Amino acid sequence: MSSAPAPAVSTAGTASRPTATHCPYCALQCAMSLAPAPAGAGGPASGAQPEVAGREFPTNRGGLCRKGWTSAELLAHPDRVTEPLLRSDDGVLRPVPWDVALERAAAEVRTAQERYGKDAVGVFGGGGLTNEKAYLLGKFARLALGTSRIDYNGRFCMSSAAAAGNRAFGIDRGLPFPVTDLGTADTVLLLGSNVAETMPPFVQHLAGARAGGGLIVVDPRRSATAELTADGAGTHLQPAPHTDLILLLGLAHIVINDGLLAHSYVAERTAGLEAVIRSVAPWWPERVQAATGVPAHVLREAAERLASSARTGSCYILTGRGIEQHADGTDTVTAAINLALLLGLPGSERGGYGTLTGQGNGQGGREHGQKSDQLPGYRKITDPAAREHVARVWGVPEAAIPGPGVPAVELLASLGKPATADAPGGVRCLFVHGANVVVSAPDVSAVREGLRALDFLVVCDFFLSETAREADLVLPVLQWAEEEGTMTNLEGRVLRRRRAVEAPAGARSELWIMNRLAALLDAPSAFPEDPREVFEELRAASSGGLADYSGITYERLDAGEALHWPCPAGSGGTPRLFTDGFAHPDGRARLVAVRASAPAPSAGAGAFQLATGRLLEHYQSGAQTRRVEALSAAQPEVRLSVHPAAAAGLGIADGAWVRVRREHAAPQGPRGAGTPGAAQPEPVVLARAELTAGIRPDTVFLPFHFPGLGAANQVTEQRTDPISGMPEFKTTRVLVEPAEAPLDRQEAS
Ligand SMILES: Nc1nc2c(c(=O)[nH]1)N[C@H]1C(S)=C(S)[C@@H](COP(=O)(O)OP(=O)(O)OC[C@H]3O[C@@H](n4cnc5c(=O)[nH]c(N)nc54)[C@H](O)[C@@H]3O)O[C@H]1N2
Ligand SMILES: Nc1nc2c(c(=O)[nH]1)N[C@H]1C(S)=C(S)[C@@H](COP(=O)(O)OP(=O)(O)OC[C@H]3O[C@@H](n4cnc5c(=O)[nH]c(N)nc54)[C@H](O)[C@@H]3O)O[C@H]1N2
Ligand code: SF4
Ligand SMILES: [Mo]
Q: Ligand 4 centre and the CA of 272: distance in Å?
């Protein structure tokens, strides 16, 4: 088995022509072409890379950001893992042949399940996986492992927006319209989104709004995107972090009280107005000003601008992680959707509401069964008809499909936990596919402790990420340009990923890995290793579901058709949703009354709200981009943004080292009272201060791309949104103090 070739599925292969594909990173999925390495360069083994070029496509119009341009550098990177690595008794990861690796993994699954039951094995997936891998991983968990314990990093990303979209519209597709529709807008309200750094080529779609002074950016920082409002291009609203719900209730209050409501749209297309009128009543502009810091007259001007565009031009409301990644993220997004509905936008020709999906396959990855409560086609795992349908496609009795599992934070909190009188035991053996939770999950010290308490940890990755370093078994997988598959972009459009280069000998496709493991575990259904075959099965499994892919084929995609789901067999797909109605049985959107609690008193001396987010040069946990020379040279270490006035108060100069810690001791997380006698050191972040007048004086900001003591998630907490399971990533009350330079500089990055 160890000499088995990687699956040969290429249509383009390593032919001399460039291969048309898409960027490996974010959900904009910019089109690019990969030309083979120049002749004589010696192929991947020599480190020669295919050449990346931007390709004409509606979302990026030939543009790429720095991450896209440098993405091919990682294909033949010296850090690539190219053999399975098993931890020996002395604690060292050592190469083993594939058959040894897979047999060991299967044996550990059996042992854990014999001792503790089926749910003792867990799976943690990722929104970067192709549709084929995400679909098969969901099936692998339910049928090959027989566990309900599967969830994924999309829970950290899209879950609040998804929950709010489902509640309001009956369906969750990030943008219910093509990105290019934004070109017609004269007003765009962008809440908690920094597209200028997180999706640079997207900025061109804001040109129309900027030209007329209609870009409104809501961010506690003067982000690169907020800067796009300069010179009359728009307005930057700079509220205190985590006051967006109040701000949005305030805008709705003005729309209702100042006669800006789209009466006939609301009457014909929505339900729930009365309760929303009551819920926004207490938030008159001056009260909102007191809570958020945004002046009342600025709020009035913004509401009037939105309403006049909605009436006579075109107006869009878009949200990003800045307002979504909160413990009340679902309600905050709901308030943004309510505002859009009150203005008559969703499904009209005058604009709409959308959320900007994050990961490369953040959209498709949330449709086909990686979520703990979900089956393919965006079906509910608790719905008897959905279970029957999927069981038929899988050729198993309905009862063979486990029930719902638990969301990501709860799953991670359960690692290694023994059973008690009141609660079942946690996961003892975990498979990780496409996430680096030791950097990206909230409260990473607790996560690391959980991973170390496992009986067995399997990590599939192409690099030794910080999470892979904790593994008992690392399985080396393929990178994007080495595999075939499909991705679904932020507009719900399905795209082809194509193989452009040979994979290193020794790495294997995840479909191949699942196929072999399923056989070793006597799985009751087939696990094809050919992506096209998996996609055919996904089409059948999704047929009739909300996210119906049954009409999409590799042939249609290869012929260049633009196919947005839902795409039932024979249809041309749905680029624009809601034009004829919403996905609730009565066709109406739901206005859902949400309430804000009065903000907590402002932090005391030396205390701040810590906001977290992204830098242009790094992607997520940085497992990939920290290995790209130009990117890591541009952003080598973590920096804490601090306002100069706040820094002066703390006696901190630009470039000085600071320590960031929680203002209050963390509430006892779900891990319980901890191990007796094993007092954990208080988690802190060590960073250099970067003084910037662009941030509010009561706020500090950290990017989350760095590991170790540089990890912002050292201090974030396990608190989650009760509806979506989204962690509170975006605000933590912290103390900032001067610190000594770390003895080992590496510690901080
Ligand atoms: N360069 C880069 N690009 C990426 C990624 C990456 O890691 N790096 N990741 C991709 C993924 S998975 C995602 S999800 C997207 C995320 O894309 P964005 O949502 O644009 O990214 P963030 O930087 O997380 O957050 C956006 C902004 O929210 C602001 N913010 C923080 N707290 C608050 C608050 O309480 N209220 C408001 N209104 N704003 C707040 C931050 O200051 C920040 O500027 O980016 C995708 N693109
Ligand atoms: N404080 C704070 N924390 C955050 C956020 C924040 O804004 N603030 N944002 C959150 C968000 S929106 C997200 S999306 C998460 C993301 O956080 P992570 O899930 O940690 O994201 P990545 O760094 O993309 O991790 C992907 C890992 O999988 C590997 N990989 C890439 N492609 C594949 C593949 O096809 N198969 C396999 N097996 N491995 C692959 C990569 O090498 C990398 O090690 O972080 C969240 N954490
Ligand atoms: S914007 Fe996103 S998809 Fe486009 S090149 Fe940059 S990382 Fe890649
Ligand atoms: Mo994300």
A: 31
